[in-house]
């Protein structure tokens, strides 16, 4: 989101002693009220700015952006602000019928991450009927490796994020039976650390993003009993910073992404 928006609502006042103008952040009371109309306006108009720097650098993950924006509209009960048929048509233009996966934009290679976003958006509009569900499920399940892990695409990068993404996608499609669930769970558990957290791979550093993904995957698999709730809860609480937000690693600044991951876990 445009960082400059944080200063637009700032209150200006003139210091009597110096004659200088100073910016002050909005009061806590003012910040407590969600500017829903402005959020809706931003989401609806940002898509039209095709030649902006932000649009160009995010072009390869446009499908993810569509999911974030449309989910926000849905939470604000404003999903009707967009043309559903137009959105669905664009989503399907990112589909690769030969593989069953979706790319992050038209003409981009398929990846399990973008495939999840496509399925989630179609669920928002209750339009899973446009999908060849078996083909998409075969694409996702085909990314499971012998050790139970999941690759993000045909190039083979493995990460616990992809395990969550795969399980989430297949759960939405009601095709969890297509994977070896026990192996998937075993791999995720092998990424658990002594501090109660989870890393991207066995032996990888605990990280808020991976923790959210592993907890989410285990929840879908009905295997939350593998988690040490007290120890993991302590890890998450320890990552709250003085400003109230949470970080993903020790000594990192807090941000809304890591805060979201910690709270969701």
Describe the protein:
The chain is 47% helix and 6% strand. The protein has 265 residues and is mainly alpha-helical. The chain has two domains: 36-131, no CATH class; 133-264, Glycosyltransferase, CATH 1.50.10.20. The strands form two sheets. The protein has a three-stranded antiparallel β-sheet. Strands 1-2 form a two-stranded antiparallel ribbon. β3 (95-96) and β4 (101-103) form a beta hairpin. α5 (62-75) runs parallel beside α7, α7 (112-124) runs parallel beside α9 (160-172) and α9 runs parallel beside α11. The model is unreliable at 1-24 (pLDDT under 50).
- Unreliably modeled segments: 1-24
**Side-by-side strand order of the widest sheet:** 3-4-5
Structural class: mainly alpha
Shape: globular
Q: Tell me which oligomeric state these chains represent.
A: single chain
**Top-tier CATH class of the largest domain:** Mainly Alpha
Q: How many domain units?
A: 2
SS field, number of helical segments: 13
Distance between the termini: 24 Å
User: At CATH's second level, what is the architecture of the largest domain?
Assistant: Alpha/alpha barrel
As a percent range, the share of helical residues equals 40-55%
Radius of gyration over alpha carbons? 21 Å
**Would you count the extended β strands for me?**
5
Mean pLDDT: 88
Strand fraction: 5-15%
Largest sheet properties: 3 strands, antiparallel
């Amino acid at each position: 989101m445009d960082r400059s928006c944080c200063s637009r609502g700032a209150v200006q006042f003139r210091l009597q002693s110096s004659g200088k103008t100073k910016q002050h952040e909005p009061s806590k009371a003012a910040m407590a009220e969600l500017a829903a109309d402005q959020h809706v306006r931003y989401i609806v108009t940002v898509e039209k700015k095709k030649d902006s720097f932000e649009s160009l650098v995010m072009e390869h993950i446009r499908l993810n952006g569509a999911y974030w924006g449309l989910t926000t509209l849905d939470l604000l009960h404003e999903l009707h602000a967009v043309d559903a048929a137009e959105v669905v048509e664009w989503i399907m233009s990112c589909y690769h019928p030969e593989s069953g996966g979706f790319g992050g934009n038209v003409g981009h290679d398929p990846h399990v991450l973008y495939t999840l976003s496509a399925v989630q958006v179609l669920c928002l509009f209750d339009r899973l009927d446009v999908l060849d569900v078996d083909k998409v499920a075969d694409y996702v399940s085909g990314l499971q490796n012998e050790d139970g892990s999941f690759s993000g695409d045909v190039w083979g990068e493995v990460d616990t994020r992809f395990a969550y993404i795969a399980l989430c996608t297949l759960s939405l499609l009601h095709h969890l039976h297509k994977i070896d669930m026990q192996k998937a769970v075993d791999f995720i558990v092998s990424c658990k650390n002594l501090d109660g957290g989870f890393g991207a791979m066995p032996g990888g550093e605990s990280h808020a993003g991976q923790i959210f993904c592993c907890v989410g995957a285990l929840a879908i698999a009905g295997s939350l009993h593998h988690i040490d709730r007290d120890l993991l809860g302590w890890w998450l609480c320890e990552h709250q910073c003085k400003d109230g937000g949470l970080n993903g690693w020790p000594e990192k600044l807090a941000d809304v992404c890591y805060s979201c991951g910690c709270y969701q876990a």
